[in-house]
Fold:
Amino acid sequence: RKEVEQDPGPFNVPEGATVAFNCTYSNSASQSFFWYRQDCRKEPKLLMSVYSSGNEDGRFTAQLNRASQYISLLIRDSKLSDSATYLCVVKGIAGNNRKLIWGLGTSLAVNP
Amino acid sequence: NAGVTQTPKFQVLKTGQSMTLQCAQDMNHEYMSWYRQDPGMGLRLIHYSVGAGITDQGEVPNGYNVSRSTTEDFPLRLLSAAPSQTSVYFCASSYPRGGNEQFFGPGTRLTVL
Structure:
């Protein structure tokens, strides 16, 4: 089993739709979780960190389910500009806090 | 602030050639790292540094060298380029440790013929 797994997609949704991605991780001792966004042929940029209690930033909601070892990203009212690849990132186990484990990404295409 | 800058943006090498990819940041970040990104493989850590004078290997260090003489600069050297090193290379920095938000440079697209 890969350390971090994502459905590669692509997810094709119309503008205004709600879409959700999941990301599963294998190490139950993982400490921190993030969602990054990567536009085509660009560098990754932090979208949001994922907190244990869940967190929201505008149209984006991130949640963590430690029992089932996955994090999720919900995008409401999708915009054309949300089209990108969304990378799930998990921070490695304690004692090796420089290790970030990157998922392969989920591709989202928002259509007019 | 320029953030993280990388040069060159594009490079074509022949097998066996050497070159240095440049990376600089002006955010006074202690932690800097190099990744390569390949289709189906995701981002893989090549080398990283936790401060000037300190470097360490990441997941895929073979064929690459790094040095960190200043806080700002973290060059990546390809010793003898191979076609398997064709990739997109990203430099990233963060403060104070690598587990926090990574700021990436725009990347260098390298092709080795």
Summary: The mean pLDDT of chain B is 93.
